[in-house]
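User: Second chain of the day. Same drill as before.
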Amino acid sequence: MVEFFVDNFSGCVFLAVILMALIPTIESKIAIPFGLSYAIWGEATLSPIVAFICAYIGSMLPSIFIILIVRKIKNRTSGFVCDKLINYAESKYHKKLEALSSKSKTFYKLSSLALFVAVPLPLTGVYSGSLIAGLSNLKIYQAFIAIAIGEFISCLAITLLCVLFENSTLLILLASLIILAIFIVFDIVFMLVKRQKKVS
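Assistant: Same format as last time:
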C-alpha cells in the first residue's frame, strides 16, 4: 500500500496523506507519520502543520455522511442485510451506546464521544465515532462537533509525538501499522469465538 502511494503521489504528498486518512481504521493515526516520514518521501516530506491539516481534513470528510447513512438505515431498517448490519454495530459498540443513551447531560455524552474519537488507537476514531453517533439519539450537528474536537486532539497528539521523535517517524509508522494489525486480528478472533459460542 505504501508503494502505491509513493509511486503515484510523490509529486503531491499532501493528497496521499488526505487519501490515506480517508481509509477506515487507518485514518490520521497512520496518515500523519506517513506524511512526516523522511525515509519514505525524502525532500518531499510534509511539514508537521501541513501533515496535521491534511490528515485532519481527510479523516473528517466521511464523518457527516456516515452519521446520516447510519441514521437512515437505522430508521428504515428493511431486509436481512440492513438488520444484520445494525445489530452487529449495536452489539459491537453496546457499552458506548449505553453511555450515550443514558440520562446524563448532553455535555457529558458529547465529551464521552469526543474522548472516544481522541484516543489514537485502532478501532477508535472518526469512523467508529460517526457510526456510534449515527446509532445514538444525539443531534447530528452536536455529534459532528464532538467528533471534530476529538479528531483534532487525536491529530495533535500524533503530530506532537512525531515531532518529539523526529528521527523515529518511520518507526512510529511501523509500530502503528503493527498495533493496527494486532487489533484487527484480535477483533476477528473475538468475533469468531463469540459466534461459535452462539452456535453451541
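The mean pLDDT is 81.

User: Great, on to the next one.
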